Amino acid sequence: MRPSRRLGKLLGYWCLAALAVSAARIWLPRAADGLATAWWCAGALLLGAALLDWLVGRKVRGAEGERQLPGNLALGVENRVRLTLRNFGPRPLALLVSDQLPDQLRSRALPRRAQLDCNQEAEIDYPLVPHHRGRADFGRIEVLADAPWGLWQKKVLLGKPQTVKVYPNFLGISSLQALSTEQSLRYLGLHQQQRRGEGMDFRQLREYRRGDSQRQVDWRASARMRKLISREYQDERDQEIVYMLDCGRRMRTKDGELSHFDHALNALLLSAYVAIKQGDAVGLHAFATGSGDSELPPVKGESGINLLLNHVYDLHSGTANSDFSGAAQQLLARHQRRALVILVTNLRDEDSDELLAAAQLLSRRHLVMVASLRETALDTLVHEPVRDFDSAIDWTAARDFLHRRARLLQQLRARNVLVVDSEPAQLHMALVESYWRLKRSGRI
Fold first, then answer.
1. Model confidence over 70-99: pLDDT tens digits?
2. What whole-number distance in Å separates Cα of residue 304 and Cα of residue 41?
3. Domain containing 209: what range?
4. What is the pLDDT of residue 202?
């Protein structure tokens, strides 16, 4: 039990009345005795009322609560939580409702007021936004129930503790699940490119169309159907895409509300979903995590994206430097089959020697792509006007940094390494577009 604001205000008024009685002894001595008696009576009444209210309000009977959570939460996305409160007790309840939230969740909509008559139910919806991935442990629903006269408040815990997982932003995947590959690409703002030649995997027979080559014509089916029938092929399936995810300290850089690491995870998941939908297998090799490397062998099929989601939802960047050479050697030891290896990182020119060596080592067996996140703040800085000496130094340093970084990317391209250089928020589109370009060109 704790005193309410109403009791505090009444005590304040009673204290002010004491000052008035003291002043009356000076200015109105004849009325002072009567005012003092009234003041003591008011104090006795307040004390009696507070005591009686405390005795009645210290027991809150019949209050129940229930929390309804989404099955999973998406990082950085507003989610709705519903609290259901019920009163089966003998008296109405005035409640101040709050919730015991995990550290990685925030909500500005609590606490909230609720008034429940006997045998009444009330629902409270409030938004919350996750700011960190991983396991989120909710406590119980926390309410302050006013005593009958509102002089005290009783803290009551309702409902049960609950746990929910905060995943990377998978809402983009959810919106694509009901779409075909072509519709998915159009949804992302991408357009298919005409590939050179044709795929090698047979898909179906169909009527001959103008422009089909003669080797596509199935002469036996044409003779049987008495019209030209063509074979339709599709891009080769069952290819492997392995993501090498840098979890080093550099990926902790913030870009907006999310870190580069979270942007990388969002892009990885969306591009992996597109690859899985094409029939390819997707694997993951996360390095420099601080707690040992994390490995997921290539998986395919509709369940593959769920395996990937559950593998990375509590994966976090560490504080160690990234060892590109060591990660490349480990990947080569575990993946013998030729694959498209996509290294997702945040490049710096000081990585040039080690990164070039790692890319060359991987290129002996795999097709290598380096996807680098570019700091938005640097692009903004170099386009701002120079106004004083300090801004000139900042502009020069940013230009020099970007120049050395561009030189490293050019050195990678010279070694037949594919390069994706994108701002964090656009990395998902850049990865999907690059994958689809490779698929249509027949390189994977």
1. 888 888 888 899 999 999 988 899 999 999
2. 76
3. 200-234
4. 57
Number of domains composing the chain: 4
The verdict on 434 and 332 lying in the same domain is yes
pTM across the whole model: 0.71
Helix (H) or strand (E) holding 355: helix 352-363
Q: What angle, 0 to 180 degrees and rounded to 10, lies between the N-to-C axes of helices 427-441 and 260-277?
A: 30
SS3 state of residue 144: strand
Q: Which tokens belong to 348?
A: 């710096």
Q: For residue range 349-408, what is the model confidence (pLDDT) as tens digits? A: 888 889 999 999 999 999 999 999 988 888 888 888 888 888 899 889 888 988 999 999
* In contact, 71 and 100? CB cutoff 8 Å: no
Please report where in the chains the tokens 């979890």 appear, as a residue: 247
Same domain, 277 and 395: yes
Please provide the size of the chain in residues.
444
Q: In what order do the strands lie in the sheet with 152-158?
A: 2-3, 152-158, 141-146, 93-99, 112-116
Q: Is 102 helix (H, G, I), strand (E, B) or coil?
A: coil
CB-based contacts of 58: which residues, under 8 Å, 6+ apart? 1, 147, 152, 154
3-state secondary structure of 236: coil
